[in-house]
Amino acid sequence: SYSKATGVALYTGHAFLVQGENSLSGDRVELDEARGDLSATGKVASVMLITQAPGAEAKTPAADNATPPTLTRVRANALVYTDSTRTAVYSGAAVLEAVTGERMRAEDITLVLEQKGRTLKSAEAVAAADGEVRVALPEGRQAAGQRLTYDAASDAYVVYGSPAVFIAPAPQRGADACEIGTGTELKFGRTQGWSGATNKGGAVGQMKPVKCSEVVK
Q: For a Cys-Cys bond, which of 119, 131, 148, 193 suits 125, CB 3.0-4.6 Å?
């Protein structure tokens, strides 16, 4: 159904919208053509081309060091996208998967894009009351906690929890060897190792050896 007065189009029943390589599907999709906003509910699945690299918004497509956009897939129970703030909020058992290797699970995942282009500015993931946020990164690294933030300018994640956990393979220690770091606040690079853990009271966390098979999910 479409209202000319409001410029809002409502699609129901296995709705599917596509624009270039970007697409969105759900049981119900509402599009505000005037504002550029949209919402979707029921088995929501989106595919977006997103550039994820520090300082990428300052590069031109023709630059030799420009980072090409890559496909990012997100599934959830609902989505609300606000074009004025370039913010997409996925809620209800949200799962994000990028072709670069990242995989994130949380109750809610919020993505904020730069005002121009398809560059990711920041992200936040929040766990359900009885759940956790878990992110899997390239090279077998994982982290879990109650809340996660990502800042594209520094290309770094921060995970908060009681405690938050960071796991990294440690082949130098032998087969099935990992290191685990715990703290109330963990910071680590998207494409690098970890940079530190902080506990309440200012204590610094440390990495400890564990068996990968015991902690990797």
A: 148
Amino acid symbol at 50: I
**Tell me: the pLDDT tens digits for 126-142?**
999 999 999 998 778 88
Give the Cα-Cα-Cα angle 92, 98, 102 (nearest 5 degrees): 85
Contact 134/127 with Cβ under 8 angstroms? no
Hey, how many other C-beta atoms are within 10 angstroms of the C-beta on 90?
A: 26
The pLDDT, as a whole number, for residue 48 is: 92
| Per-residue DSSP letter, 171 | G
3-class DSSP assignment, residue 139: helix
- Provide CB contacts within 8 A for 131, sequence distance 6+: 106, 107
Mean predicted lDDT score pLDDT of the chain: 85
What pTM does this model have?
Answer: 0.87
Residues 6+ apart with CB under 8 A from 24: 16, 17, 18, 38, 40, 44, 45, 46, 47, 79
Give the span between the Cα atoms of 120 and 82, in whole angstroms: 15
CA-wise closest residue to 157 among 140, 135, 178 = 135
